[in-house]
Structure formats: structure tokens, C-alpha cells
Amino acid sequence: MTVAPELAVVVSTIGRRDPFRRLMESVEKSTVARSVELVVVDQSDDGRCAAVLDERNWSMTVRSATSAPGASLGRNTGLALTTAPLVAFPDDDAWYPEDTLGRVIKAFRTGDAFAGLCGRQVTADGRPSMLRWQHRPGLVTARNFLRTSIMSTMFFDRSWLDKVGPFDEDMGVGSPSWYGACEESDLLLRVIEAGGSVPYDPALLVRQDEPRDQPDQAFVTKMLKYGCGQGHLWRKRRLSRPQLAYYCARKLAAASVRAARGDRTLAAADLAWLRGNIAGFRDVEPKSLHRAADSAWPPS
């Protein structure tokens, strides 16, 4: 008997076949695989990731599409194909513990009417990934979203996305602009500004590697674009300037500590992020940021 999907998992990718397969297999192993529809928007020339859908008979509903480059464009393209009332947009190199998707569906079924739900991102061995995550549960707000949310840990009630509009395609990795991040935060904040309640549950886990474990020059460039995206977000959403100054001061202090320890690449990444924030907030593109060279999707 066909089961109507309750959760859509939309993945925008370009050629990272093995990580995408790991993500698909984690969905397949979940306790609610039959209630999931997975939509992959494969932006590679040869469709190598979409081909993974044909490797076996999956329990979940699967479909594919293509689009021009850009994570936000890909997610919007995939969103238009979904039918489920809930939706997630994991990065193609994220993956789910076995119980995560079931917990998400149960939370939306049994909880108060809320617009979204955010979990916490950790590495395979349980270390915090990407952010300094808040330990306590609570509501996501404009004050704490940088410690309670990231793209792969966000789950939305689809009706709220229809209400506030899709991802800003001028933001995010691979976009035509130089704002290389924070498209998910922009969407989340629009939901909150529209009156949507978004709880944060640190026990709800999504797994993804920590890029700072193996930093290189490409990581420094990526942090510059990420900083540009965050500075742009602060200006666009008119967020707290003292809060942005606090984050920039922390990053400057971190760069100093890492430089003193000899972690020169990480220190350079911190400074690049800081410079990007200032540039994005002022809306003045950094001279060293070459769009043609640095806008490849996905990041290396």
C-alpha cells in the first residue's frame, strides 16, 4: 500500500556522489523511510548523483530534477516538486542518525503548532560541527540563531515556506552574487518575523564533518564568502549591530590565539571571515574575491 509522504528531503548537489549516497542510505535506514520523499536536484553535467536513485529499490519515494548552479536555486527547484507537509534541505554531505527523521515527524504531529524545528549538528564521533551549539533547548530567535540552527538541521512546515517565500537565490554557495552563505538563516528569520515558532532541540542530531579538521586555502576562500553572506544578512534583515560586533570581536580573538599556536590556516580563515562580514555589511565586494574562480558549487 502506498503511504503518503510526511517529510520531503530536498538535496541540491553537483557531483558529490559518495556523500550523497551516504545521505540516501541514512534516510533508507531511518525508522520512517516509507514516509519520506527524497528529491535530488543534480546540477552536475553527467547526472552522477541522480543516477544513485537507480541503484536499488528504495523504501522512500525518490525523484530527481536538474537546475542551473546554485544551492538556493536547486533547493527552490526541488521544493516545487514536493508533496509532503514537512520539508528538510540537508547538505549533500550530511547524514541522519536512524531515529532523527522519526523524531521530527513525531514532533510535528504531537507538538504545538510550530513553523519549524531545529536540531544540532555533530560529527560522526559526536563533536560539535560548524557552530558553537547552545546546550539548552528553547526557541530559535534573531539573537541565538547562530547557535541553534544551520541548514542541515532545519525542518519546516511547508505551509510556512509558501507564506514567506522560497530561498533568496542571490544568497548561498554557487549563487550569482558574492554572498556565499546564510540563505538558510535568511529563510528561517523570515519565518520567525512572520510569527512562526521554531523550537530548538539539541538532542535532535544531524551528522556532518567538521571542515576545520582539515583546513586548506580553499577553506580560507570559502570562509571569506561565508563572511560576506553573513554581513549581507545582517544588513538585509537589520539585525543587531552590537551582536555582529561581538561575533567579529570573538573571531578576531580566535584568529590571534590560533596564530600564536601556529594554526596559520585557521587564523587566516578567521580573518577572511571577519573581512567578509565587514564587506557584506557595507555591501562592498572584497577586491580579492574573484567570482568566476570562487563561485563553484559545491565548496571543495
Summarize the structure.
The protein has 300 residues and is of the alpha/beta class. It is built from ten helices and eight strands. It folds into two domains: 7-209, Spore Coat Polysaccharide Biosynthesis Protein SpsA, Chain A (Alpha-Beta Complex); 215-294, no CATH class.
| Count of DSSP-assigned helices | 10
CATH superfamily of the largest domain: Spore Coat Polysaccharide Biosynthesis Protein SpsA, Chain A
Strand arrangement across the biggest beta sheet = 3-2-1-4-7-5-8-6
Choose one word for the global shape: globular
Number of domains: 2
Helix and strand run: EHEEHEHEEHEHHEHHHH
- How many angstroms does the end-to-end distance come to? 42 Å
**Mean of pLDDT:** 92
- What's the CATH first level of the largest domain? Alpha Beta
Which consecutive residue ranges, at least 5 long each, have pLDDT under 50?
Answer: 291-300
> Might you state the CATH topology name of the largest domain?
Spore Coat Polysaccharide Biosynthesis Protein SpsA, Chain A
- Share of helix among residues? 25-40%
* Count of beta strands: 8
CATH architectural arrangement of the largest domain: Alpha-Beta Complex
